[in-house]
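note to self: dont lose this again. the chain is below, predicted strucutre after it. 370 aa total, dont forget to put it in the shared folder this time
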Amino acid sequence: MSKAKILIVEDETIIALDIKRTLINLGYAVPAVMTSAEKMLDKIGEIQPDIVLMDIMLKGSMDGVEAAERLRKLYQIPVVYLTAHTDSKTLQRAKETEPYGYIVKPFEEQDIYTTVEIALARSQAEAKIRKALEKEKELRELKNHFISIVSHEFRTPMSTILFSAGLLENYGNKLSEEKKVTHLQRIQTAVKQMTNLLDSVLTIGKAEANKLEFHPTAINLENFCSSLVEEMQLIAGEKYDISFSSQGDCTNALMDEYLLRHIFCNLLSNAVKYSPNGGKVKFQLTCEPSQQVAVFRIQDEGIGIPPEDRKHLFEIFHRASNVGNISGTGLGLAIVKHSVELHKGKITFDSEVGKGTTFTVTLPLQSHSD
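---
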């Protein structure tokens, strides 16, 4: 365990050196001794001590109380005052800075040890509380954002279902069989959209809670990918040309098929979704038994990813700044990242705005659960 760092701010050299020697004997680190508040404030960000021992009656334009007040506003570093005879007004000012303790001059070694240890314990406890409160706030904001996005994404398929069901109920006897089939297909498509959305919500919930399970089974990757491309081509329609090619022996892999579907359904649907003008989507699979990896590449001719969005691309709810009115939840790539990591693989991408994006997923051919 690293030693706690104690910064001393004391303008009486003999006292300062005595405190330093005592602290070192007690097992603490003393990175510096400062003789003025101005010097301390200038170096505090660089030193980042765990505690500041601050003389109240510092010489110069700023006393220890004013320095402590500035410290409290700029940093969350505990201050313990060094004090001798102090008038009541100064003492009241000192109290308002919420110090972590006082050491009265002349001091005993035990006084310093007890006060510093209590201050450190309190500081660590408060840091944990702050972290918990920040996490709670983050989760609350995440929940609100999640509800907003999911509610929005549910609205479109729900409207489709209500509209088509209403027509079938009220005008079913006047509609041709072809029209009836069309409206039934629209209802089925909308239900699938809602089911997929719910599945994504449940999956990301498990992933964020580290409860997403990993169950590898034997799988023929070539057959799996070929079947997936056929499925996606039917959904995408004639506007898109989704091609698949493979190289190497991909017939005997050990991976989680459920997670693989999440990875490549999301990447392929994104390739289609973010290519609003249609075009080619290439899905390439290369198996390299000598290196025991399978490399998957999905290339599109879509809108591309702006440079400023790339470092946030796999964060939950993040969507690129150029998506415009293209619908989406911002869950897909976060699920992809978690699913790839459970396989102990990696995902990378290359993109050029206006020209398209290529995602590369590299997975071990034989993935084992821990």
